[in-house]
Amino acid sequence: MPDIKSRPTLERRLGPLDATAIVISNVIGVGIFTTPGIVAQMLPHPWAILSVWIAGGLLAFAGAMAYAELAALRPHAGGEYVYLRESFGPLAAFLTGWTSFVAGFSGAIAAGAVGAAAYLGRFIPAAGDVRPLLSVPLGLVTLSVSRRSIVALAVIAGLTLIHLRGLGPGRLLQNTLAGVKVAALAIFVALGFAIGGGAAAHFHAAKAVSAGSWLLALIPVMFSYSGWNAAAYVAEEVRDPGRNVPRALALGTLVVVTIYIALNALYLYALPIDRFAGSIGVGETVAAQLLGPAAASAIGLLALVIILGSLSAMVLAGPRVYFAMARDGLFFHRAARVHAGYRTPVAAIVAQALWSGLLVLSGTFEQLLTYTGFAVVLFAGVAVCALFVLRRRCPDEPRPFRAWGYPLAPGLFAVASLAIVLNAMRESPWPSAAGLAVIAAGIPLYWLLRRTPPAVAPSGAPRV
User: Strand pairing of 132-138 and 4-5?
Assistant: First the structure.
């Protein structure tokens, strides 16, 4: 491997549009083609459906503005890892980083790569072939190699290599994928309303819904919006972060909310609610209904681009968390180093790719994501609570940006996050308990790592 500098500093090369593209790509996934069917089944009322997507968007924006203040105040790599460390101590910070590595980023990357292989299999059948070519039993798990897993590994390896090479090629890929997905979805919406054979009458046929059903529907909606905080992870690499990170979080979240609401309105225009309630392929069904079978195939191809954009954003953002942890001595020391030429945390990026690849081969990413799905909302809610702690603890510290609507907006986000987590525990107690066990498994590792002095000081300066 080429020489690596010992001083762990990342290069500020990202502008506001680059950071915005990371937010957009991280949020917009194929979930916008699948989740609306689940929401429609829970809320068989068109205006209730639109209202819950609007409410979820407002909560996401409130969370984004809280993160914007935190990122401007502490413009370092790592996102909520940094905010929890500053507010609630290193153990809380480590647990969010540990969960991100074990499942949050790596598990999502594994799932996305397998999804990409499955979508590619629609056009190249061999790419989606799940028949095992080789099986290696390893006690509790079995590593299974199939054509689909090979394609998934190739996707992870390809994106990893691009992001290893620095922010230049990485941001070019990220901006291109984000631009394509936004443009394609906008064209889909425009053509659907302009020349599609939908009916405005679909907005009037409805059944009664309860407040409880509306609140339950907010849960999958909030999961669909997750990822709005992506720019915070790369704050250390954004130029003028006090100004540009808030811009990126605000603009990226607003673009996503606008697209999501427009798509849901299009779905309701295209089909009566009972035609897509419970469906996990709403996007393709609507495209075929409005624009013909060829459009449905095009949506399948668009889904592949959407997945690749989301994967690229996660491959870029996740390692910045482990890099920050390693600077504090809470991850293996090599991850705190930055490549001399590429200016990227090479070891952290490679570690994430290796673990993601292992999850692909073992198939355990499905269980991990099921178990720890609520942790995404949990740690985001705790990070927003960090805003209140730092406002009280550091009232006179200069803040380049202050969260809009404070304290009401971040307070509502924190309460909504708590409600979602408690509901997940109530509705799925055993998976939630397993998720808590995965998180708690990081505690002994934390104490073990604490015994070893960090390779660099928490501030990022080298240790003497």
Answer: unpaired
**Structure letter (DSSP) for residue 136:** E
**Global pTM value:** 0.92
Q: Name the token pair of 217.
A: 């529907």
Environment class of 332 (CB within 10 Å of its CB; exposed 0-12, middle 13-18, buried 19+): middle
Q: Phi then psi for 4, rounded to 5 degrees?
A: -125, 130
| pLDDT single digits (tens) 428-461 | 899 999 999 999 999 999 999 987 665 555 444 3
Rounded to whole angstroms, the Cα distance separating 120 from 154 reads 13
Question: Which strand (E) or helix (H) includes residue 142?
Answer: strand 141-146
- Topology, domain 13-450: Amino acid/polyamine transporter I (1.20.1740)
Q: Rounded distance, CA 32 to CA 264, Å?
A: 9
Encode pLDDT of 128-145 as tens digits: 999 999 999 988 889 999
Cβ contact 319:348 at 8 Å: yes
The amino acid that residue 363 corresponds to is G
Structure token pair of residue 203: 């907005």
User: For residues 341 and 391, what is the distance between their CA atoms, to the nearest angstrom?
Assistant: 39
Burial of 153 (0-12, 13-18, 19+ CB in 10 A): buried
In the chain, where are the structural domains located?
A: 13-450
CA 219-221-224 angle, to 5 degrees, is 115
Residue at 274: amino acid letter: D
Distance between CA atoms of residues 116 and 27, nearest Å:
16
Give me Rg for the CA atoms of the chain.
22
**Cis? peptide before 407, omega within 30° of 0:** yes
Please state the φ and ψ torsions of residue 146, each to the nearest 5 degrees: -130, 175
Instruction: Provide the sign of the torsion angle of the four alpha carbons 39, 363, 229, 176, taken in this order.
Output: negative
3-state helix, strand, coil in the chain (%, to 5): 75, 5, 20
3-state secondary structure of 146: strand
According to DSSP, residue 133 is labeled E
Lookup result for tokens 């500093």: 9
Nearest CA-CA partner of 39 in 264, 189, 255, 201: 264
Show the CA angle centred on residue 392, arms to residues 386 and 394, nearest 5°. 90
Q: Which residue has the tokens 């498994």?
A: 441
CA distance 154 to 389: 43
